[in-house]
Amino acid sequence: MSLNITPSVGADSYRPDIDGLRAFAVLSVVAFHIGLPGLPGGFIGVDIFFVISGYLISGLLKKELVEQGRIDFKAFYARRIRRLAPALVLVVLATLLAAYFVMLPDDQNKLGREVRGVALLSANHHFLQHAFDYFDSDSDLKPMLHIWSLAVEEQYYLVWPLLMWLVFRRWGSGSSGRERPVRGLLSLVWLLSFGLCLWLSLHDTPRAFYLMPARAWEFASGALLAMAPQRAMGRGRAASLAGAGLLLLAGSVLFLNDKMLFPGWIALLPVLGTVLLIWGGAANRDNPVSRLMSWRPWVAVGILSYGFYLWHWPLLVLGRYWGLGERALERDFLLGGVLALGLAWLSYRYVEQPLRQRRLPCLGAVKPTLKTGLWLTLSMWLLGTVSMYAPKHFPWPGQQAILQAKHDAMSFNDACNMPGDGLPLPPRAACMIGQPNAPLRLLAWGDSHADHLMPMYEQLAKQHGVSILRRVYHGCPPLPDVTPVGEGKMRTWCTRFARAVREELPDLKAKGVTGVLMNARWIGYAAEVLPGRPAQTGVVEAGLQGVPKLPGNMIAGVPPLDHASSMRVLEAALGRQAAYLQSLGLKLVLVSPEPEMRYSPAECVARKGAQACNVPRQNVESERAEVAAMLGRLTAAHANVRLWDPINRFCDADTCYASKNGLIRYQDRDHIGATMARSLGADFDVDFRWALAP
């Protein structure tokens, strides 16, 4: 392909080897995201970009300060807008358009929130909350996730030019003397940032990964090289530097992996490798390693690296979303590799270059460019907001069958909400289901799995002329003595809610309640890795104050949030719960885990056909065996407890069915639809009657 190289510096200053280094970085990242075998450390390409950015931009700022004694901040940020905004806005618009036809409204809502984070240069903070572990498989379905790195870079450049200018004005004297205080400042930034990076990597790894202060040392590494005195070297010595850098980078891509503690100490390897490679080229451009990095095809890919990086990830995500969340190497290579590179060339040729060359008046002079940047920020934020809500009201007609299955759910009174802090409990009158004005006899308590059985409870309550109190908090086990922890969060609101429900039990008993119907996705609190899903949540003892003290990163799967510990805590807490209910004279009906599907049945049936969406019963029994055994032991140990197992209504001897006779049984992979729930009533009626009996 033909590319017109138009560097922002003069021809004498242009470094084709740095564009080749950009190619190495972007190809590493894209290969890692595609899942090409043998390149487990490709994610370090982002670290390479950070160092390159620090080197080039700090070098330009230094030149401006030395020659003019000041920084034209307006011009600096106008250049950033021209460089970054055109391709970014194009990719965001294209992603939102494609997502309308590919993604469901709830997921478009999440995408809209991502776009708002992109618009406000806070994508890294957004994903710290909503994609806590960058390397989780759940991150595969977040189209704007890769923009976290752009947010980190721009946050750095909101601060660094001002610091440079202040130091030059305060302590600089003479053209050469002015660089020393800046090097001192950079060294301080490097030490503080790297120290923070090391500390967070050990205690809060995702924050070390996403937050700018923990990454600033990487930009500072490149900036220190730009500020260092430039001394020429012989070809051999320069080649040794550049060759050592290239070996460090290649070794990082080949031997690092996402199971290692990253960034941490090991991030030094790609950062040092990048510094050495740039240094070797600066010392002698004619050294063989720098000439290799200046190979024309490498340079061409490097010139396209920004667009390539922007395009590849949304294409991968949309392809995986359509593929029901699964990776497929051939499809991903075509979308994230071939198509993304082609779109990068088109956007470079017809969007980036014309606008960078100021062919539009709104991106010409500095003042209109800054106004355009503000206008684009506001427009993108508003577009994200529209994308959050419009698809729910105006979904693509091709999604109607899927949405019908997903909306097969019971509606609840808005006043029976889930309070953000777990308190106060919503008023009982708003949370009654069953026969209107009938006596309250049962409490339905649990998480979202209690809610998906609520249509059955309501149907049986009407048949028996009673009412049921709904006490449900999604994502929270109905256990006052535990706190779910995972993804960097302690769900203390769960503990507060559960303790408030426990405190009202004596009053409920006095008002005629005889039993508790309890269902929860127990496996979801056991830090267990299921096919296609990472371990996300474990549980720990809540303690007297309901705020456990935990060391480490609060990542499920890592002690004390490992699977074995979580199962022990769950079983002990359930035992105490049963004993307390028995002391009050209340019965407890537990529900054994319903089968969980590999794919969300509604999408799966629409795209693959019903037969492809079923799962072998043997797999289901294996996944739920440990929880079922725990519930069985609990039932055997307490006379006031019964266990109801609905599995035979979902499965025959060999297969558990996602749909049957045209009815899709599930709203998603593990929540059943209201129609399916009502069909279980006759099976549950015996246990329902038992719970009603005094």
Automatic annotation (TrEMBL):
EC assignment: 2.3.1.-
InterPro entries documented for this protein: Acyl_transf_3_dom (IPR002656), Acyltransferase_3 (IPR050879), SGNH (IPR043968)
An annotated Gene Ontology molecular function: acyltransferase activity
Signal sequence, start to end: none
Residue ranges annotated for the SGNH domain, each copy included: 416-684
Keywords of this entry: Acyltransferase, Membrane, Transferase, Transmembrane, Transmembrane helix
The keyword Lipid metabolism is assigned to this record: no
Domain Acyltransferase: 17-348
Enzyme kind, highest EC tier: transferase
Transmembrane segments: 42-61, 84-103, 155-172, 184-202, 238-256, 262-283, 295-313, 333-351
Statement: the UniProt record of this protein carries the keyword Membrane: yes
Name of this protein: Acyltransferase family protein
Annotated source species: Chromobacterium phragmitis
